[in-house]
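[step 3/7] fold_predict: job queued, chain A
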Amino acid sequence: MSVWPDLCGCCDGGSNCGVCFTALCCPCLTAGENASRSGVADGSSVRLKVGLAYGMSIIAGAIYQNTSQYVQWAIYTGEFSLLVIPATTLMGRYIALLVFGYFLYTLRGQIGSKYGLPNEPCPFWLLVCCGCHFLPLIQEFKVTSGFGGGAVPGMAPGSVPVIVGQPVAAPVVVAQPVQAVVVAQPVEEKSPQV
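[step 4/7] structure written:
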């Protein structure tokens, strides 16, 4: 089975800083491009699902940041009913992040099965939970663009592609005519025995 490209090689092998920036700031665009380039899903539906989940997590996080004064006031006054709003938005943010990660994980599984790559949950979910969701997206970009890892679509997983054709810049051998010398050998005839 093949392996995914290097996890920390964000800007090598076909991806550039623009791809890294897009995957970091707007992962729905990169996920949609990966889905449509690989042909495993419709790019616009992937953009919509991933974008909604990511947007909901950002909105819930912003609301939670703006409700931090409720936490301070609740601790100061003893009114713990004021903690409902921050707790709800924090829980909503984590639920939205889990849905966001689920959409990315299923897309990664589809791309991995098409290109003969493993779909291991441990590094993927660790990266998504730490806020490094762009690293697996860049790996998928490299695979779907043909810049690293994976087999050629349609090949059996683990098989090696065969390159057909003359090598580039190979020395050319020109055949020279060979002179042959023919020597006649006398043949003895034997009489048939009765």
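[step 5/7] annotate
The radius of gyration is 32 Å.
Residues 156-160 have pLDDT under 50 and may be disordered.
exit 0
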